[in-house]
Design a protein that fits this description.
single chain, alpha+beta, nine-stranded mixed beta sheet, 13 helices
Length: 421
């Protein structure tokens, strides 16, 4: 992997909590307006610039991209974002606990660096999701307008002892930033890795890796690589080491990452009675009534169903999947094929309005609430996909089914920015 340090553009310490934000794609324009309030320093002015226009303005309006460019320059002019004096790496830590899932507090440490677009184009940076051309084009327009990677992408790499030693050493020193974010209440810390020897060691260790994996940010990765390729074509003196060839990523050891369950709620039983629905499930699952207390799946191929104020354990029978096929044996594939498609007649998870999805951060209580309220008829909780499953599928060049992964915590935006010039 070809990586490099970079001149980060970032807020002075006293401004970081005013600047930082959630990623652009986890909230609507109206939610962003609400979070901005009267704060002129919120990064949403740059990453969701429609908040500066009248309500109802499309996020794809050409004026919005121009406004993002204007705001980015204004933030720098006013000293809210300042360029570091040295090319360096950064260490970013996220500390989180998930009471709704029973998980204990844990910290994951990512190295903030720049990766080369060629590694994305060649497939050395591996993906597990399909991207949409319209979303790629949106992010490309934003990168072109700001001439920067305002937000990083989220990568995973196989554990590396040398990098873990460097991470451990810096994590025991005073961080540059240390704050608890609003809403999710997770702790975020950042250190500058400016030692020449540490920079050289990080560069060397990543260069020896054959690949990295996109955990979150497939559209941003594609857009950044495509903009880099555009710049290369437009430059008659292109060498390959120009800054536009690189884009910003936060890279975490795979073993540290947390993937939460990504659960489903469904509006109806497709004309079946509850008894008929349970009978249909028994063709492919061992079904056990667990009573009224919340029941969480404990292993792969076990599901938790909530119906008529009762929780059920569904354990897939061996005939329900092909254990030699990495896609077919995924729990998202088993449930999509045998429950939603065959029994409930839901054939397109992305477009059918009879189904909705609930991230595991909200817990089983949210599933119960949406069913008990009458909004939904049943809920299905899945055991989380593992990072090893994602890496195995990406290594084979295959794509995960839709709505399969939910990574937490999300990266905070605005801690470091990478300019392309």
């Amino acid at each position: 992997m070809k990586v490099k340090p970079f001149y980060g553009i970032r807020p002075p310490r006293q401004y970081v909590e005013l600047v930082e934000s959630r990623p652009y794609d986890v909230l609507s324009s109206d939610e962003a307006r609400q979070e901005v309030g009267t704060n002129p320093m919120s990064l949403y002015h740059i990453i969701k610039p429609e908040v500066n226009f009248e309500i109802g303005t499309s996020e794809y309006d050409p004026r919005v991209y121009d406004e993002g460019k204007r705001q980015f320059q204004m933030f720098q002019d006013r000293g809210w974002l300042v360029k570091d004096s040295k090319e360096q790496y950064y260490l970013y830590a996220q500390t989180a606990s998930f009471p709704a899932t029973g998980n204990v507090e844990k910290t994951q440490y990512g190295i903030v660096l720049c990766v080369h677009s060629d590694d994305y184009i060649s497939g050395a940076i591996k993906k597990h999701e399909l991207t949409r051309a319209d979303k790629e084009e949106d992010r490309m327009k934003h990168i072109r307008a700001t001439d920067a990677n305002i937000e990083p992408v989220f990568f995973a790499y196989p554990d590396n002892p040398t990098l873990l030693q460097i991470i451990d050493r810096y994590s025991h020193t005073e961080p540059e930033y240390d704050f608890v974010a609003p809403i999710d209440r997770f702790r975020h810390q950042l250190w500058c890795i400016s030692s020449d020897s540490d920079i050289a060691a990080i560069t060397r260790e990543f260069r020896q890796m054959p690949s990295m994996y996109i955990a979150d940010g497939h559209h941003r990765s594609a857009a950044a690589a495509l903009v880099g390729a555009e710049r290369a074509q437009l430059n008659p003196n292109h060498r390959g080491d120009e800054e536009y060839n690189y884009f910003m990523a936060v890279c975490f050891p795979a073993s540290q990452l947390t993937i939460l369950d990504y659960n489903r709620v469904i509006r109806d039983l497709n004309g079946l009675s509850p008894c008929q629905f349970i009978d249909a499930l028994q063709h492919y699952f061992h079904v056990e009534n667990k009573g009224s207390e919340e029941y969480r799946p404990h292993r792969l191929h076990e599901f938790s169903l909530y119906l008529d104020e009762q929780w059920y354990s569904l354990t897939a029978k061996p005939c329900a999947y092909d254990d030699s096929d990495p896609i077919d044996k995924l729990d998202v594939s088993i449930s999509s094929r045998l429950i939603f498609d065959q029994i409930l007649g839901i054939h397109d998870l992305r477009r059918d309005n009879r189904i909705d999805f609930v991230g595991g951060l909200r817990g089983l209580g949210e599933l119960r609430r949406r069913v008990d309220s009458g909004e939904m008829r049943i809920a299905l909780a899945l055991y989380p996909v593992t990072m090893q499953q994602i890496m195995d599928i990406a290594d084979l060049g295959k794509i995960m089914p839709p709505k399969a992964t939910w990574f937490e915590p999300k990266l905070r935006s605005g801690l470091v920015i990478h300019k392309l010039d």
